[in-house]
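Figure 6 in text form: structure in, sequence out.
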């Protein structure tokens, strides 16, 4: 079970209070050790998540020609970068055979569609990366277009606010000023980016819905999906964890991405994960067929990518880079999810890092 971090403590008590300091330290340690945490935020409404999931199920159950009218949609184009990435293949090889992800070597595109909806402010300056900072497109179907902006905006704002809380808690827990990360991402192209997988077509155990990978952004936050299937790997043990939200309560899952790894000089590593059809997914499909016979059988992931600003200069923060190398020396060895060769975190614009990663996963020509 992942550590549970309480955002309410951070939001309701003074910054220097012992409870806040302890919770922020716990958040930073969770990201260092697991690359992930569960977040409790009493402002998050399960009803809003359900309304969002209903909207996306309705959208993705439209005929293909309707879907193709929306340019904010990408279908079956994302490939797991890991399949051709040497450091990533070495990571897989070092895992115990029964803890390895499903085999992605065939390098098939993931059978999923993704919709991008930008959240947050456009840069007030001329960005060097206009392609990464595009505006939003509303689906034009009569049944969707009126409710689309408000539902996307409401759920997206809740996730954005929650993940920015984690970014501040992590900064405090790492001994940095609390706005260190949120200032660096003030004009980031934050994206509410739900994916959809057709569970009528993809209903067999061990089908890969999203192959083993890490996320390229700073922090990713997920609401509860209706179908299990997300596996993450803890950095400290190299063991696969089946993500399960506590049955009741207002929880979100937060995972570290490549920009946080880069900025922390590897003290925090981007978390590996995959989405597959497992036994729990199949059991949920069977149950929902009976309980909701009129609803489409589509797995929606309630995913939000929080980014640093595209024009921000990405380079390891010296105090974190030092702690990272001290820890490596202390441990004399590496965690199972460390590459055997030291990664080099070259200084670059965030937009450059994003473009390099998108080329790998073929979302950008
Ligand atoms: Fe991901």
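Output sequence:
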């Amino acid at each position: 079970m992942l550590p549970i971090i309480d955002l309410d403590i951070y939001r309701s008590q003074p910054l220097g209070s012992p409870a806040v300091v302890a919770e922020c330290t716990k958040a930073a340690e969770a990201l260092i050790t697991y690359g992930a945490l569960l977040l409790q935020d009493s402002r998050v409404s399960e009803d809003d998540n359900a309304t969002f999931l209903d909207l996306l199920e309705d959208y993705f159950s439209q005929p293909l020609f309707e879907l193709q009218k929306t340019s904010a949609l990408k279908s079956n184009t994302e490939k797991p970068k890991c399949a051709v990435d040497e450091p990533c293949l070495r990571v897989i090889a070092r895992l115990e055979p029964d803890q390895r992800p499903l085999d992605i070597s065939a390098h098939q595109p993931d059978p999923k569609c993704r919709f991008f909806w930008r959240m947050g402010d456009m840069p007030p300056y001329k960005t060097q990366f206009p392609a990464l900072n595009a505006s939003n497109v509303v689906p034009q179907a009569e049944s969707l277009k009126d409710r689309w902006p408000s539902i996307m905006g409401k759920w997206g704002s809740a996730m954005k606010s929650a993940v920015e809380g984690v970014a501040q808690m992590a900064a405090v827990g790492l001994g940095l000023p609390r706005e260190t990360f949120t200032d660096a991402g003030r004009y980031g192209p934050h994206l509410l980016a739900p994916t959809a997988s057709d569970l009528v077509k993809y209903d067999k155990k061990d089908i890969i819905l999203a192959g083993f990978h890490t996320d390229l952004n700073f922090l990713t936050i997920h609401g509860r999906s209706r179908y299990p299937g997300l596996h993450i790997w803890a950095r400290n043990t190299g063991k696969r964890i089946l993500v399960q939200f506590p049955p009741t309560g207002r929880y979100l899952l937060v995972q570290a991405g490549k920009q946080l790894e880069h900025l922390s000089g590897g003290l925090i590593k981007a978390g590996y994960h995959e989405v597959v059809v497992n036994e729990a997914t199949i059991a949920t499909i069977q149950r929902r067929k009976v309980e909701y016979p009129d609803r489409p059988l589509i797995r929606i992931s309630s995913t939000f990518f929080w980014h640093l600003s595209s024009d921000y200069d990405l380079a390891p923060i010296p105090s974190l880079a030092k702690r990272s190398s001290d820890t490596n020396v202390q441990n004399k060895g590496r965690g199972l999810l460390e590459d055997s060769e030291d990664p080099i975190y070259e200084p670059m614009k965030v937009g450059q890092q994003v473009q390099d990663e998108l080329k790998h996963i073929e979302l950008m020509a």
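Caption detail: The first helix runs from residue 7 to 12.
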